[in-house]
Protein backbone atom coordinates (compact mmCIF):
# COMPACT_ATOMS: atom_id res chain seq x y z
CA UNK A 1 0.00 0.00 0.00
CA UNK A 2 1.45 3.39 -0.89
CA UNK A 3 1.32 6.02 1.81
CA UNK A 4 -1.56 8.45 1.29
CA UNK A 5 -0.36 11.71 -0.19
CA UNK A 6 -0.72 14.50 2.34
CA UNK A 7 -3.07 17.27 1.25
CA UNK A 8 -0.85 20.27 0.63
CA UNK A 9 -1.59 23.07 3.06
CA UNK A 10 0.50 26.16 2.51
CA UNK A 11 1.83 27.01 5.95
CA UNK A 12 1.78 30.77 5.69
CA UNK A 13 -1.71 31.00 4.13
CA UNK A 14 -3.28 29.44 7.21
CA UNK A 15 -0.73 28.95 9.97
CA UNK A 16 -3.50 28.05 12.43
CA UNK A 17 -4.93 25.22 10.27
CA UNK A 18 -1.40 24.00 9.47
CA UNK A 19 -0.56 23.93 13.18
CA UNK A 20 -3.82 22.29 14.27
CA UNK A 21 -3.29 19.60 11.61
CA UNK A 22 0.03 18.76 13.29
CA UNK A 23 1.97 19.44 10.10
CA UNK A 24 5.69 20.17 10.19
CA UNK A 25 7.96 21.15 7.33
CA UNK A 26 10.78 18.86 6.26
CA UNK A 27 14.13 19.94 7.69
CA UNK A 28 15.27 21.39 4.34
CA UNK A 29 11.94 23.18 3.92
CA UNK A 30 11.69 24.94 7.29
CA UNK A 31 12.61 28.38 6.06
CA UNK A 32 12.08 30.50 3.03
CA UNK A 33 11.37 33.89 1.53
CA UNK A 34 7.87 35.20 0.78
CA UNK A 35 6.96 37.01 -2.42
CA UNK A 36 6.98 40.16 -0.27
CA UNK A 37 10.67 39.55 0.49
CA UNK A 38 9.96 38.70 4.14
CA UNK A 39 12.12 35.83 5.36
CA UNK A 40 10.37 33.20 7.46
CA UNK A 41 11.52 30.30 9.55
CA UNK A 42 9.40 27.57 11.15
CA UNK A 43 10.72 27.12 14.69
CA UNK A 44 8.38 24.64 16.38
CA UNK A 45 4.70 23.66 16.40
CA UNK A 46 2.84 26.96 16.34
CA UNK A 47 6.06 28.98 16.46
CA UNK A 48 7.09 31.00 13.40
CA UNK A 49 9.77 33.67 12.98
CA UNK A 50 9.51 36.35 10.29
CA UNK A 51 11.84 39.20 9.44
CA UNK A 52 12.05 41.89 6.79
CA UNK A 53 14.25 41.40 3.75
CA UNK A 54 16.77 43.94 4.99
CA UNK A 55 16.92 44.84 8.66
CA UNK A 56 19.14 47.25 10.53
CA UNK A 57 21.17 46.11 13.51
CA UNK A 58 18.99 47.88 16.09
CA UNK A 59 15.69 46.81 14.54
CA UNK A 60 12.86 46.16 17.00
CA UNK A 61 12.05 42.56 17.98
CA UNK A 62 8.39 41.83 18.68
CA UNK A 63 6.96 38.58 19.97
CA UNK A 64 3.19 38.20 19.62
CA UNK A 65 1.52 35.23 21.29
CA UNK A 66 -2.06 33.96 21.44
CA UNK A 67 -3.71 30.76 22.59
CA UNK A 68 -1.67 30.34 25.74
CA UNK A 69 -5.19 29.36 26.81
CA UNK A 70 -6.41 27.02 24.08
CA UNK A 71 -10.03 28.20 23.96
CA UNK A 72 -9.24 31.90 23.52
CA UNK A 73 -9.89 31.71 19.83
CA UNK A 74 -10.29 35.26 18.49
CA UNK A 75 -6.69 36.44 19.01
CA UNK A 76 -5.44 33.10 17.62
CA UNK A 77 -7.41 33.65 14.42
CA UNK A 78 -6.20 37.25 14.17
CA UNK A 79 -2.58 36.19 14.54
CA UNK A 80 -2.94 33.56 11.83
CA UNK A 81 -4.49 36.15 9.48
CA UNK A 82 -1.60 38.49 10.29
CA UNK A 83 0.92 35.84 9.19
CA UNK A 84 -0.97 35.42 5.89
CA UNK A 85 -1.13 39.18 5.30
CA UNK A 86 2.60 39.65 5.99
CA UNK A 87 3.47 36.71 3.73
CA UNK A 88 1.32 38.07 0.90
CA UNK A 89 2.67 41.60 1.28
CA UNK A 90 -0.65 42.99 2.54
CA UNK A 91 0.76 43.91 5.95
CA UNK A 92 4.12 45.63 6.36
CA UNK A 93 6.87 44.16 8.50
CA UNK A 94 9.78 46.38 9.52
CA UNK A 95 10.87 44.47 12.64
CA UNK A 96 11.77 40.96 13.68
CA UNK A 97 8.61 39.03 14.60
CA UNK A 98 8.06 35.81 16.52
CA UNK A 99 4.53 34.43 16.27
CA UNK A 100 3.47 31.98 18.98
CA UNK A 101 0.30 29.88 19.02
CA UNK A 102 0.55 28.73 22.64
CA UNK A 103 -1.31 25.66 23.85
CA UNK A 104 -1.84 23.83 20.56
CA UNK A 105 -3.12 20.59 22.13
CA UNK A 106 -5.72 22.50 24.13
CA UNK A 107 -6.73 24.38 20.95
CA UNK A 108 -7.40 21.02 19.29
CA UNK A 109 -9.60 20.05 22.27
CA UNK A 110 -11.25 23.51 22.37
CA UNK A 111 -10.35 23.78 26.04
CA UNK A 112 -8.36 26.18 28.20
CA UNK A 113 -5.74 23.55 29.09
CA UNK A 114 -5.47 19.79 29.58
CA UNK A 115 -3.77 19.32 32.99
CA UNK A 116 -2.54 22.72 34.10
CA UNK A 117 -2.99 26.36 33.21
CA UNK A 118 -0.02 26.99 30.88
CA UNK A 119 0.08 30.62 31.97
CA UNK A 120 1.00 29.55 35.53
CA UNK A 121 3.92 27.34 34.43
CA UNK A 122 6.54 29.78 33.17
CA UNK A 123 9.78 30.96 34.81
CA UNK A 124 10.66 27.35 35.49
CA UNK A 125 7.50 26.39 37.41
CA UNK A 126 6.94 23.63 34.81
CA UNK A 127 9.89 21.81 36.37
CA UNK A 128 7.80 21.27 39.50
CA UNK A 129 5.04 19.59 37.47
CA UNK A 130 6.99 17.28 35.14
CA UNK A 131 4.00 14.96 34.59
CA UNK A 132 1.71 17.76 33.46
CA UNK A 133 0.70 17.66 29.80
CA UNK A 134 1.52 21.38 29.64
CA UNK A 135 5.03 21.19 31.18
CA UNK A 136 7.00 20.42 27.98
CA UNK A 137 5.09 23.12 26.10
CA UNK A 138 5.98 25.73 28.73
CA UNK A 139 9.64 24.68 28.44
CA UNK A 140 9.50 24.86 24.62
CA UNK A 141 7.89 28.31 24.65
CA UNK A 142 10.52 29.58 27.11
CA UNK A 143 13.24 28.30 24.75
CA UNK A 144 11.58 29.90 21.72
CA UNK A 145 11.49 33.28 23.48
CA UNK A 146 15.09 33.01 24.74
CA UNK A 147 16.35 32.09 21.27
CA UNK A 148 14.42 34.91 19.60
CA UNK A 149 15.55 37.61 22.03
CA UNK A 150 19.15 36.34 22.15
CA UNK A 151 19.57 37.97 18.71
CA UNK A 152 17.58 41.10 19.60
CA UNK A 153 18.86 44.64 20.05
CA UNK A 154 19.38 45.73 23.65
CA UNK A 155 18.46 49.36 22.87
CA UNK A 156 15.67 50.72 25.10
CA UNK A 157 12.25 49.86 23.67
CA UNK A 158 13.67 47.37 21.15
CA UNK A 159 12.13 44.24 22.74
CA UNK A 160 8.38 43.74 22.94
CA UNK A 161 6.10 40.88 23.90
CA UNK A 162 2.34 41.11 23.45
CA UNK A 163 0.42 38.12 24.82
CA UNK A 164 -3.20 38.22 23.66
CA UNK A 165 -6.01 36.65 25.67
CA UNK A 166 -9.79 36.82 25.95
CA UNK A 167 -11.80 36.66 29.16
CA UNK A 168 -14.85 34.69 30.24
CA UNK A 169 -15.92 37.12 32.95
CA UNK A 170 -17.53 40.47 32.11
CA UNK A 171 -15.42 43.51 32.94
CA UNK A 172 -16.12 47.13 33.82
CA UNK A 173 -13.28 47.81 31.37
CA UNK A 174 -13.95 45.40 28.49
CA UNK A 175 -10.35 45.45 27.30
CA UNK A 176 -7.51 45.66 29.77
CA UNK A 177 -3.83 44.84 30.06
CA UNK A 178 -1.75 43.25 32.82
CA UNK A 179 1.84 44.36 33.14
CA UNK A 180 4.38 42.14 34.88
CA UNK A 181 6.27 43.38 37.91
CA UNK A 182 9.93 43.94 37.10
CA UNK A 183 10.90 46.71 39.54
CA UNK A 184 11.83 48.88 36.53
CA UNK A 185 9.89 51.98 35.45
CA UNK A 186 7.16 51.43 32.86
CA UNK A 187 7.66 52.52 29.28
CA UNK A 188 5.69 55.44 27.86
CA UNK A 189 5.81 53.80 24.42
CA UNK A 190 4.04 50.74 25.84
CA UNK A 191 1.31 52.80 27.52
CA UNK A 192 0.78 54.86 24.36
CA UNK A 193 0.58 51.68 22.34
CA UNK A 194 -1.97 50.24 24.80
CA UNK A 195 -4.07 53.39 24.40
CA UNK A 196 -3.90 53.02 20.62
CA UNK A 197 -4.98 49.38 20.99
CA UNK A 198 -8.18 50.60 22.72
CA UNK A 199 -7.08 49.17 26.05
CA UNK A 200 -8.91 51.26 28.65
CA UNK A 201 -7.33 49.92 31.83
CA UNK A 202 -3.93 48.61 32.87
CA UNK A 203 -3.35 46.44 35.92
CA UNK A 204 0.12 46.64 37.46
CA UNK A 205 1.31 43.55 39.28
CA UNK A 206 3.44 44.14 42.36
CA UNK A 207 4.84 40.63 42.73
CA UNK A 208 6.41 38.25 40.24
CA UNK A 209 4.16 35.67 38.60
CA UNK A 210 4.50 32.66 36.32
CA UNK A 211 2.84 34.06 33.23
CA UNK A 212 4.47 34.13 29.80
CA UNK A 213 4.74 37.94 29.93
CA UNK A 214 6.45 37.77 33.33
CA UNK A 215 8.93 35.32 31.81
CA UNK A 216 9.80 37.45 28.79
CA UNK A 217 10.03 40.61 30.93
CA UNK A 218 12.44 38.97 33.37
CA UNK A 219 14.39 36.48 31.26
CA UNK A 220 14.43 38.38 27.95
CA UNK A 221 14.29 42.04 29.02
CA UNK A 222 11.12 42.60 27.00
CA UNK A 223 8.54 45.31 27.52
CA UNK A 224 5.78 42.75 27.97
CA UNK A 225 2.03 42.83 28.47
CA UNK A 226 -0.86 40.42 28.74
CA UNK A 227 -3.95 41.72 26.94
CA UNK A 228 -7.50 40.70 27.92
CA UNK A 229 -9.52 41.54 24.83
CA UNK A 230 -13.11 40.59 25.65
CA UNK A 231 -15.22 37.47 25.31
CA UNK A 232 -14.40 34.17 23.71
CA UNK A 233 -16.32 32.02 21.15
CA UNK A 234 -15.55 28.82 19.20
CA UNK A 235 -13.23 29.08 16.15
CA UNK A 236 -14.96 30.81 13.24
CA UNK A 237 -17.74 32.32 15.38
CA UNK A 238 -15.85 35.34 16.64
CA UNK A 239 -16.85 38.82 15.65
CA UNK A 240 -13.30 39.86 14.91
CA UNK A 241 -14.27 43.53 14.54
CA UNK A 242 -14.54 43.69 18.34
CA UNK A 243 -10.81 43.03 18.44
CA UNK A 244 -10.01 45.47 15.64
CA UNK A 245 -8.32 48.05 17.88
CA UNK A 246 -5.73 45.62 19.18
CA UNK A 247 -5.26 44.00 15.77
CA UNK A 248 -4.65 47.36 14.09
CA UNK A 249 -2.25 48.45 16.84
CA UNK A 250 -0.22 45.22 16.47
CA UNK A 251 -0.07 45.74 12.70
CA UNK A 252 1.08 49.36 13.17
CA UNK A 253 3.73 48.26 15.66
CA UNK A 254 5.06 45.68 13.17
CA UNK A 255 4.86 48.15 10.29
CA UNK A 256 6.77 50.74 12.30
CA UNK A 257 3.97 53.28 11.84
CA UNK A 258 2.77 53.22 15.45
CA UNK A 259 3.15 56.39 17.48
CA UNK A 260 3.27 58.79 14.54
CA UNK A 261 1.60 62.13 15.33
CA UNK A 262 -1.46 60.73 17.03
CA UNK A 263 -2.99 63.66 18.84
CA UNK A 264 -6.29 62.25 20.17
CA UNK A 265 -4.86 59.25 21.97
CA UNK A 266 -6.61 58.07 25.16
CA UNK A 267 -4.15 56.84 27.72
CA UNK A 268 -5.49 53.89 29.75
CA UNK A 269 -6.43 54.24 33.41
CA UNK A 270 -4.02 52.45 35.72
CA UNK A 271 -4.71 50.20 38.70
CA UNK A 272 -2.14 48.73 41.06
CA UNK A 273 -2.55 45.47 42.98
CA UNK A 274 -2.66 46.20 46.72
CA UNK A 275 -3.72 42.84 48.15
CA UNK A 276 -5.32 39.51 47.40
CA UNK A 277 -8.12 37.48 48.88
CA UNK A 278 -6.82 34.08 49.92
CA UNK A 279 -8.89 30.93 50.25
CA UNK A 280 -7.70 29.18 53.41
CA UNK A 281 -10.17 26.29 53.71
CA UNK A 282 -13.33 24.78 52.26
CA UNK A 283 -15.31 27.04 54.60
CA UNK A 284 -14.26 29.98 52.39
CA UNK A 285 -17.06 32.34 51.35
CA UNK A 286 -16.68 35.04 48.71
CA UNK A 287 -19.46 37.51 49.47
CA UNK A 288 -19.95 38.62 45.86
CA UNK A 289 -22.24 37.58 43.01
CA UNK A 290 -20.64 34.69 41.09
CA UNK A 291 -20.66 36.76 37.89
CA UNK A 292 -19.40 40.03 39.38
CA UNK A 293 -17.56 41.89 36.58
CA UNK A 294 -13.81 42.43 36.82
CA UNK A 295 -12.92 45.89 38.22
CA UNK A 296 -16.21 46.22 40.13
CA UNK A 297 -15.55 48.78 42.87
CA UNK A 298 -16.33 48.49 46.56
CA UNK A 299 -16.37 51.16 49.26
CA UNK A 300 -14.28 51.20 52.44
CA UNK A 301 -15.39 48.75 55.14
CA UNK A 302 -17.19 46.38 52.72
CA UNK A 303 -16.69 42.76 53.80
CA UNK A 304 -15.72 40.79 50.66
CA UNK A 305 -14.74 37.36 52.00
CA UNK A 306 -14.61 35.26 55.16
CA UNK A 307 -13.13 31.92 56.06
CA UNK A 308 -13.15 30.90 59.75
CA UNK A 309 -11.42 33.76 61.56
CA UNK A 310 -10.13 35.27 58.27
CA UNK A 311 -11.90 38.35 56.88
CA UNK A 312 -11.17 40.51 53.86
CA UNK A 313 -12.57 44.01 54.38
CA UNK A 314 -11.99 46.94 52.01
CA UNK A 315 -9.47 49.31 53.64
CA UNK A 316 -9.09 52.03 51.00
CA UNK A 317 -11.65 54.64 49.97
CA UNK A 318 -12.32 52.43 46.95
CA UNK A 319 -10.97 49.01 45.96
CA UNK A 320 -11.79 47.01 42.83
CA UNK A 321 -11.84 43.24 42.49
CA UNK A 322 -10.19 41.44 39.57
CA UNK A 323 -10.32 37.69 38.76
CA UNK A 324 -12.55 36.66 41.69
CA UNK A 325 -12.75 32.87 41.93
CA UNK A 326 -14.10 31.05 44.99
CA UNK A 327 -13.51 27.61 43.46
CA UNK A 328 -9.69 27.62 43.65
CA UNK A 329 -7.97 25.10 45.91
CA UNK A 330 -7.40 26.12 49.57
CA UNK A 331 -4.17 28.09 49.89
CA UNK A 332 -4.61 29.80 46.54
CA UNK A 333 -5.63 33.29 45.45
CA UNK A 334 -9.40 33.83 45.20
CA UNK A 335 -9.20 37.39 43.87
CA UNK A 336 -6.96 40.44 43.43
CA UNK A 337 -7.70 43.88 44.88
CA UNK A 338 -6.55 46.97 43.01
CA UNK A 339 -6.68 50.72 43.57
CA UNK A 340 -6.47 53.42 40.93
CA UNK A 341 -2.98 54.91 40.45
CA UNK A 342 -3.40 56.59 37.06
CA UNK A 343 -1.94 60.02 37.78
CA UNK A 344 1.04 58.70 39.72
CA UNK A 345 1.89 55.97 37.18
CA UNK A 346 1.53 58.13 34.06
CA UNK A 347 3.70 60.84 35.62
CA UNK A 348 6.55 58.36 36.07
CA UNK A 349 6.67 56.74 32.61
CA UNK A 350 10.06 56.76 30.92
ZN1 LIG B 1 -6.19 33.63 28.78
From TrEMBL:
GO molecular function terms listed in the Swiss-Prot or TrEMBL record: hydrolase activity, acting on ester bonds; succinylglutamate desuccinylase activity; zinc ion binding
Active-site residues from the entry: 228
Enzyme Commission (EC) number: 3.5.1.96
Key words of the record: Arginine metabolism, Hydrolase, Metal-binding, Zinc
GO term, biological process aspect, one: L-arginine catabolic process to L-glutamate
Binding residues annotated for Zn(2+), in chain numbering: 69, 72, 165
Class in the EC hierarchy, top level: hydrolase
Cofactor section: Zn(2+)
InterPro entries linked to this entry: AspA/AstE_fam (IPR050178), AstE_AspA_cat (IPR055438), Aste_AspA_hybrid_dom (IPR007036), SuccinylGlu_desuccinylase (IPR016681)
Functional description taken from the UniProt entry: Transforms N(2)-succinylglutamate into succinate and glutamate.
Protein name: Succinylglutamate desuccinylase
Species whose genome carries this gene: Paraburkholderia ribeironis
